[in-house]
Structure formats: C-alpha cells, structure tokens
Write the structure tokens for this entry.
Amino acid sequence: MNVLRQVAAVCGLSVLLGAAAHAEDWQLAKDEDGIKVYLSSVSGSKYKAYRGVVEIKADVQTLNALQEDVPGSCRWIHACAEMKLLKRQGNEAWTYSKIDMPWPVTGRDLVLHVKGEQTADGTIVRQLQAEPTFIPAVKDEIRVPKLVGEWRMVPKGQGVTEVTYQVRTEPGGSIPSWLANSFVVDAPFNTLDALRKRAEKR
C-alpha cells in the first residue's frame, strides 16, 4: 500500500516480534505523562531492550503520515541528527540516519530495512532491522551493526491510537554505561512524547 512505502526510522537507537524472542522479564522503568517505558535484559548482550507505549489522540492515518515523512521524522525521533530515504520497493523501505552522541562518544549511523503491513482492523506495523552493509561506511561514524525493532499503531476508536515502539540493538564500539542506561529510557520516552505532540497539533 502507498501509505506503507515510506517510513520513519528508529531513533537514534526503535520489535514486538524480533526482540520478544530474545528479551524476557519486561520491567517498568518509567511511567510519566501517559507514557510507559519497559526494559528487558537480552541474553548475551550488555544492552537492554526497550519498549515504549502511549495512547495518542490522533488516528492511525495521521501518525502514519508523520512517519512517512522520513526527513521530517528526524525532528521527533530522539537523538536524530539526520535521516533520509535510500530506497523504496513495495511495502519495504531502506532508510539512513545519523545519531547524535554526547562528546567524547563517536557518533553512530544506522541503515534500517523496514517492512510495513496493515492488518484487517487498521493496525499498522513496521518491522525494523539493521542492514549495516547496504551502503558503504561513512567517515567519522560508527555503523550500528545490529538492531531489530517494531512500530505498532493500533486504532482504539474515537480518533485514539495506541502506539508501541520497541527496539533491541547493539550500537557497536564502546558506549559508557551511564549513556547506555539513560538512552534505553530516553529514546522511547522522548520519541513517543515528541510524536504525540506533533500528532495532536494536527
């Protein structure tokens, strides 16, 4: 479908299907302003998976339009410095994004392969997977080697949509523990908060 041919990528660094097989024991890490963030340890990884859930007073089509504006989505995705669409093919898309990191941590970049689908009840699902070799390496950036994630937008009636944003990632290189621990909470919370503000203004 045309509405699924473009996509918003994850933040800077966001699998109900992919991570669910590897993440267990989701624990509520933040519950504020209607947004809930859950974290889960991932077997064999020092980085936790994250899941953010919020209800937004906007319909699925409004949220989908915001996500289809790939360059524009960088304004509401946490830590996004740049985002662009590389390729579209049917309901699949490939996006490139640069992720801001605080000094002295080296910036990351990310190539995502996104597959979209719309279910019979109007739910839109976008499955995300890193494809680090899709384009050549970029100077002064560390390419994120692994990421699986999912956006799920479920209509709840009366113009309300439940949005879930979930990610499991290996960011590559060295990340200080304080940054890793804050990112997994800030990324889903700030992304969903900014998306909600933009959607509810429309």
User: Anything to note?
Assistant: The chain is about 20% helix and 40% strand. The first strand starts at residue 27 and ends at 32. Residues 1-22 have pLDDT under 50 and may be disordered.
